[in-house]
């Protein structure tokens, strides 16, 4: 009997009751703006920053309106301006090159390996072209960060980490976001903690974070920030840094604080589901799973596999058959961007040259959301469906019928 999946790939879990209660309290007193406090009250946004800094081990944290805003702020605070080249991943999502374009920068794309991380050999050849790398830990895959930082430090290239998919993750015990000058996080609905939209920026760099706080729209209220540089860091910066308002409000911060406390538990649940999928697909003919190194402690809110060197019609057939059985897969090899899925050669505001080795990998990448509304049994069923479909289509290729 053919089994189908009936779950929803975009349905998240409810906000925890503690977050709902905290949000109601903010709405009842009406002080949603982060700088609107009463008496000795500490703003929810300031408390969130303090708690996230402590959780990541960073000196400083800034809560902002989105992950994309966090990246543009980090780029501006690092001195990127019009015409500057910025290295970044060829395998990422549109907000990453979008952040570079937003500050007038020009992306220089670096290749992707079959394990879905930045190609460090390609990076080594391109380091002379820029002084900043906006590194995307795309879909939660973390490269060899010791080697990456050694390459960038030797070339005097500043690293900014896009950690939208790696909140709670680490490489060799060091949290993602703590390797470079800035770590940028997202709290958009499909990320590890959910406020609809939102972002967090962390750093140990005193001048850089002072500039970021001014950029975010602090006016002269930077002294109310708690996970922030001391007032003397702002003495000159406050005069020369523009206000590009992108603050997080207290309502979203209130929703996020209980979720942040629950993150280790939620990460374990995501990884349990990932492990069931990986086990179910491990021996699938024609399908490759990316290798997850021992040093990589990941948080798996999504799942990827590769159909390397498959003809495009066969890949499209796999997607169509899976969708007919209730399993929604995204593909990075399509000729046109679809939904949230696009690739470097479709971002025409950011010029690019063909990258044959990376194009081969991108043409085979299949991507799937993994919401916590899925049970472990759901994941086992999804794995069975994908395995059956892939092997059926692959057999047709092997026999010459595909």
Commentary on this structure:
This protein is an alpha/beta fold and 402 residues long. The chain has 2 domains: 17-257, Type I PLP-dependent aspartate aminotransferase-like (Major domain) (Aspartate Aminotransferase, domain 2, 3-Layer(aba) Sandwich); 263-398, Alpha-Beta Complex (Aspartate Aminotransferase, domain 1). Helices cover 38% and strands 13% of the residues. It contains 12 helices and 13 strands. Strands 1-9-8-5-4-2-3 form a 7-stranded mixed sheet, with helices on both faces. Strand 6 and strand 7 form a beta hairpin. The two termini are 24 Å apart. The mean pLDDT is 96.
The chain-level mean pLDDT equals: 96
Query: What is the number of domains?
Result: 2
The biggest beta sheet, please?
A: 7 strands, mixed
What amount of the residues lies in strands? 5-15%
Structural class: alpha/beta
- The count of β-strands is 13
What is the rounded distance between the termini? Answer: 24 Å
Low-confidence parts lasting 5 or more residues at pLDDT below 50? none
Helix content: 25-40%
Which H/E pattern describes the elements?
HHEHEHEHEHEEEEEHHHEEHEHEH
Strand order of the largest sheet: 1-9-8-5-4-2-3
* Total DSSP helices: 12
Describe the protein's topology:
Elements: H1 17-29, H2 44-56, E1 60-64, H3 67-77, E2 85-89, H4 95-102, E3 106-110, H5 120-126, E4 132-136, H6 145-154, E5 158-162, E6 170-171, E7 174-175, E8 182-186, E9 199-203, H7 206-215, H8 237-240, H9 250-281, E10 296-297, E11 302-306, H10 312-324, E12 330-331, H11 356-362, E13 365-369, H12 376-398
Parallel strand pairs: 2-3, 2-4, 4-5, 5-8
Antiparallel strand pairs: 1-9, 6-7, 6-10, 8-9, 11-13, 12-13
Helix pairs in contact: 1-9, 2-9, 3-4, 3-7, 9-12, 10-12
């Amino acid at each position: 009997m053919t089994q189908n999946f009936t779950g929803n790939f975009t349905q998240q879990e409810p906000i925890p009751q503690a977050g709902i209660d905290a949000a109601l309290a903010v709405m009842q007193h009406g002080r949603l703006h982060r700088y609107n406090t009463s008496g000795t009250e500490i703003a929810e946004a300031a408390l969130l920053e303090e708690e996230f800094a402590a959780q990541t081990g960073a000196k400083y944290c800034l809560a902002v309106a989105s992950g994309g805003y966090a990246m543009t702020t980090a780029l501006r605070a690092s001195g990127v301006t019009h015409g500057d080249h910025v290295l970044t991943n060829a395998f990422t999502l549109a907000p990453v090159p979008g952040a570079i374009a937003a500050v007038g920068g020009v992306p220089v794309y670096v290749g992707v390996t079959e394990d879905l991380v930045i190609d460090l050999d390609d990076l080594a050849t391109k380091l002379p072209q820029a002084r900043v790398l906006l590194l995307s830990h795309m879909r939660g895959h973390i490269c060899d960060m010791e080697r990456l930082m050694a390459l960038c430090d030797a070339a005097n290239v500043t690293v900014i980490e896009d950690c939208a998919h790696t909140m709670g993750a680490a490489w060799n015990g060091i949290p993602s976001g703590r390797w470079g000058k800035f770590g940028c996080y997202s709290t958009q609905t499909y990320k590890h903690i959910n406020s609809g939209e939102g972002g967090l920026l962390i750093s140990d760099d005193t001048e850089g974070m002072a500039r970021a706080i001014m950029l975010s729209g602090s006016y002269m209220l930077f002294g109310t920030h708690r996970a922030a540089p001391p007032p003397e860091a702002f003495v000159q910066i406050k005069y020369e840094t523009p206000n590009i308002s992108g603050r997080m409000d207290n309502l979203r911060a209130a929703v996020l604080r209980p979720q942040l406390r629950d993150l280790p538990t939620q990460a374990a649940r995501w990884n349990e589901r990932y492990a069931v999928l990986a086990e179910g697909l491990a021996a699938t003919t024609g399908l490759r799973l990316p290798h997850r190194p021992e040093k990589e402690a990941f948080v798996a809110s999504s799942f990827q596999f590769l159909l390397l060197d498959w003809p495009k019609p066969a890949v499209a057939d796999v997607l169509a058959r899976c969708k007919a059985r209730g399993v929604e897969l995204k593909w990075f090899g399509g000729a046109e961007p679809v939904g949230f899925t696009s690739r470097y050669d479709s971002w025409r505001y950011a010029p690019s040259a063909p990258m044959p080795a990376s194009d081969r990998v991108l043409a085979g990448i299949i991507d799937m959301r993994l919401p916590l509304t899925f049970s472990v049994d759901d994941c086992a069923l999804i794995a069975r469906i994908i395995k059956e479909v892939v092997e059926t289509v692959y057999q047709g290729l092997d026999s010459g019928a595909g």
